[in-house]
Amino acid sequence: MMETIGILAAMSQESNAFLHLIEQRECSKLGTYQCFRFRIQNRECWLLTSGMGFQRATEATRALIDAASPQLLVSIGIAGAVNADLKIGDVIASSSTCYLDKEGVPGPFQPLTRLSEAARQAAKQALQAGGVGLYPGTALTTHGTQFIQQQAAQFSNPVLEMETAGIAGVAAEKGLPLLSLRAISDGPRAPIPFSLEKMMDEHDNLRNGEIIKTILGHPKMLPQLVRMGGNTRKAADNAALALFAILSQPGPVITL
Prior knowledge:
- The chain is α/β, with parallel strands linked by helices.
- It has one domain: Rossmann fold (3-Layer(aba) Sandwich).
- Helices cover 34% and strands 27% of the residues.
- It has helices spanning 12-19, 54-68, 117-128, 150-153, 164-174, 208-217, 222-248; strands spanning 3-9, 26-30, 33-40, 43-49, 72-81, 91-99, 110-111, 134-141, 158-161, 178-186.
- Strands 5-9-8-6-10 form a five-stranded mixed β-barrel.
- It is globular, with a radius of gyration of 17 Å.
- The model has no long low-confidence stretch (mean pLDDT 88).
């Protein structure tokens, strides 16, 4: 029986990293979203690029569920590490998610589904050649803030991103399992060289003018930005590689 899987990525860079691994695919419009359809093993996959932020992720998830009726949802992309023990490119399969308010205080936690042992081993083997690993963790969905209250930092491998809690809310409404795979693009070992929150408006749009102004005012930041770009590419590629390995193995993707 064909299983349908709905995959959501916030940015085209995250989507494209996965699409580079797919030989045959169909592209279509799903409302205002770009959507790709393809098959891996006996799985019918829909990949939708939602745009950044909690609200966009929520709306895109509803659109994807209405169109595809998936049995499983996947949140894929990049994230920032809270603690210094994770390397750039490590992939986190989160077991729970929550939304952080602007003071960094976590809201209610929502459980996420876990990988099956066969899927976990497939992802670990795929990542091993690049010297990175697959680890359990917690997805902290935020509006660009880098300040974390101590109670949030105490969770296992907490990572900062901007969409998973929005997707999880819709998944819970529909009774669907949600898998979160996020690869580390920044963190204490390689911090973002500016305040991400200051570079975004209240609708999670990047303030391009503010970004340009900041770069022009701090030319010594350019090497850091180049490094950040490389780290982001590595993270997007590793998240894609892990998910492709998971979907390519013939066994079940998640535990029941």
